[in-house]
Amino acid sequence: ITLWAIGRRNTRLEALRRGGWVLVGVAWVYVASTAWQPTDAASGLTLHFLDVGQGDAAVLRTPAGHWVLIDAGPVLGRDDAGRRVVLPFLQRHGVTRLAAVVISHAHADHVGGAAAVLARVPADAVIEPGRLYADPVYYRFLDAVATGGDPWQVARSGQHFAIDGVRFTVLHPDTTWTEWGTDLNEDSAVLLVDYGAFSALFAGDAGLPAERLMAGHAGRVDLLKVGHHGSRGASGDAWLEELRPRAAVISVGQRNRYGHPAAEALARLARHHAELWRTDREGTITVNTDGQRMTVRGHRGSVTYPVQ
């Protein structure tokens, strides 16, 4: 596993880089061993897709009450979704520690709120692609990781950890990925989450090139967090034919300037019979599963689906 260096001198980042070589080898074992608890089948797995506007943030609660954050929402000027949305959500649920934080990639609409969250809520592991990206928002995230002493790990395909019977597997970036830096979206960490017969896939901002590389490795899923906010360059027909999700969540801001979700992506999702749930229409979307069926809730009400 390669630990990417950051091309800027900063004492906290320097410390992160020096410590990172050790953490690369231990973080996955740490999460799997120290966060493991017996499964409480009655409570099941809950996934909250937070309404953070034009960005991504999801919070997962495992059966025994451990919490995992996948992306932390955007920051734009003084508007920080980590401070405005994610932290209040965690505080309402009494969360004082995160079992893991997974950042799909370094764009501000995914990593932006992470610094504010990590400044208040420590994590047992922080996992991200580690792609060098010269951006102040990303640097603030790295500073927060180093300052808090949170174990830091680069994400590569094939890595996995388990918490309370919930299995997390990284599908991308692959060790054979040769397009680093061509498009940061395509460097996204893509995460498969399994619990019982239930599967969910978090696509980050991965698009068609990454989807082609992952072909044959994901299999069918019940729930898809749609890649790149439903842009036309993601969620290709071949990918959707492999996944065949019953429900698809699009995390997107109202009347955003990017035109997300794109009509082409919506048409492909409809063609593959995925029922859409959009944060710009539903607000925060909550999914509960006992491993045999899943119930999705939003402003319009709830729908229960059998898992595949």
Strand content: 25-35%
Q: Please describe the biggest sheet, giving its number of strands, its sense, and whether it closes into a barrel.
A: 9 strands, mixed
Quickly give the structural class.
alpha/beta
Helix-strand string: HEEEEEHEHHEHEEEEEHEHEHEHEEE
Helical amount: 25-40%
Q: Which value, in Å, is the CA radius of gyration?
A: 18 Å
Walk me through what this model shows:
- The structure is a single chain.
- The chain is an alpha/beta fold.
- The protein has one domain (11-306): 4-Layer Sandwich (Metallo-beta-lactamase, Chain A), CATH 3.60.15.10.
- It has helices at residues 11-34, 81-92, 108-111, 114-120, 136-148, 208-214, 237-243, 263-271, 279-282, and strands at 45-49, 57-61, 67-72, 75-76, 79-80, 100-102, 126-128, 152-154, 160-163, 166-172, 190-195, 198-202, 223-225, 247-250, 275-278, 285-289, 293-298, 301-306.
- It has a nine-stranded mixed beta sheet with strand order 8-7-6-3-2-1-16-17-18.
- Helix 1 (11-34) packs across helix 5 (136-148), helix 2 crosses helix 4 and helix 4 runs parallel beside helix 5.
- The relative contact order is 0.14.
